[in-house]
Amino acid sequence: MHFSKTALGTACVVAVLLHHSSAAAQDYSQSSVRVRVVPLKRSTFERKAGDGPVLIGPQPALELEWRIFNGTGRPVEIPSLDTVLRLRISTERREIPVRTEWAQTMTLRSGIGYDRLVSDPQPVGAAILPDGSSLWVRGSTKPVDGSMFPPAEYVVQLDLHDLQEVSQSGDRRTARADVGFPIQLKIVEVNSPERRRQFHIIEGAFYKNLDPARALEHYAALAALPGAAWSDSLPLASLYADLGRHREASAVFRQLMPGLIQSLDTPLGQIVRQAGHLRAAAISLAVEGDTAAAANLLRLEGRTPPDHIAAEIDRLRKSAPRPGGNARE
User: Fold this and answer.
1) pTM given for the model
2) Phi-psi region for residue 113, left (φ > 0), alpha (ψ -120 to 50) or beta?
3) Where would I find the beta strands (DSSP E) of the chain?
């Protein structure tokens, strides 16, 4: 990846963790461009007080979402992501050469607040960022030599290049950059049963929509861990169902069914119903011809009138995902 340098120099913007996208509303009054970087794989199970996100297990890449907020009062020109953005990653005072592979699309967001927010997905490339809007894009940052990021403590910073404000008359000036503080990111070893469990949950969730086969590997490993709870098999069964692999989904659902049904009499029961787990299991079982079990699950779910259950099973069977086809409703 090539990064251009100009006589205007480099404005160093430090990437900091954005916990809530609603903070964008506060960013627009700062008369500057602000950049936030959100790790997409960070653990919510562990806390490293005051330092930043924690990742579990060696990582082939830092998977990040970049959010660029324009609060300058004028449009800002982004010639290309490679020209504008570059991560600097170091550990033990040694900088690691890295490159970033961008997603194929980015999203231009305008408006403040969810009720007035307008999102416009577009191919990655040059863009004009209007005042009061933001650009969100995902990037996968990898070591240039193809190695992994091993467990260690890292300092993550962002260099911001060639960001220009433009006016209607064509006048240009270098955009002022908001300067924050580095991310103190930590990657911890998978050195305990609980961290092993967390690792498979996080990795499976990340790859679910990007690489389902890889997600299945993690979810299968999660379900097979010694002492795994019945609920640790739910992600595997649900992903099989979403992929239209109802025979495998039914087999897993049948294994976890006793725990799933028993949970309905606990405080967890409402969450199980609202999350659609009973209906997901009913769909796969109906496709595989076990209409009695599917009907029982719909009765337990309580959304379908008893005299409509047979018709609902038929509808669910016909609309169920097929391999390579539609996703589950």
Assistant:
1) 0.81
2) left
3) 11-13, 33-39, 54-56, 62-70, 76-78, 85-91, 94-96, 98-110, 118-123, 127-129, 133-143, 152-160, 164-166, 172-174, 183-188
The residue type at 164: Q
64 φ, ψ to 5°? -130, 150
3-state SS class at 131: coil
Neighbours of 162 (CB within 10 A): 19
Domain carrying residue 24: 11-188
Residue 85 CB partners (closer than 8 Å, separation 6+): 35, 66, 100, 139, 158, 159, 160, 161
> What does the alpha-carbon distance between residue 195 and residue 225 come to, in Å, rounded to a whole number?
12
Length reported for the chain: 329
Q: Which of 168, 188, 208 is the C-terminal boundary of a domain?
A: 188
Element (H, E) at 308: none
Lowest-pLDDT range of 75-79, 101-105, 254-258, 313-317: 75-79
Structural domains counted in the chain: 2
What are the residues facing 317 on neighbouring strands? Answer: none
Which residue shows structure tokens 């029961």?
Answer: 269
In the numeric block, the tokens 């480099």 are attached to 10
Dihedral pair phi/psi, residue 154, rounded to 5°: -125, 150
Q: What is the pLDDT of residues 11-52, one digit of tens each?
A: 333 333 333 333 433 443 457 888 888 899 988 877 654 568
Same domain, 108 and 17: yes
Looking at residue 266, its amino acid is: T
Question: Is residue 97 assigned to a domain?
Answer: yes
Give exposure, 285-322, as e/b (b: 16+ Cβ within 10 Å). Answer: bbbbebbebbbbbbeebeebeeeebeebbeebbeebbe
99 secondary structure, DSSP code: E
Tokens of 27: 């960013």
Quick: pLDDT tens for 236-268. Answer: 999 999 999 999 999 999 999 999 999 999 988
